[in-house]
# Entry
Amino acid sequence: MDKFHGVDLLRKICDVGYATACGVLAMQYLNGEGVPKNTSKAMELLQRSCTGGFEKACQERDVLRAKGVH
# Structure
C-alpha cells in the first residue's frame, strides 16, 4: 500500500467516526506525510479525534495550541 492509498483509507475510516484514524491522519497533515502540510486541517482532525475519545489527540492538540498553532 502506498502513502496516498493509506491516506485515502484513513480519511474514509475517519469519516465513519473512528477517532484513532482521525488522529493518525491529523499527524500526517501536521508533518506533510503523504499529504500537503496543513496545520489547520491537522488541528481540525485532532479536535475531531479528541471529541471521539482518542486522548493522545487531545494531548497533541493542547501542545500545539500552547505553541500558538490554531
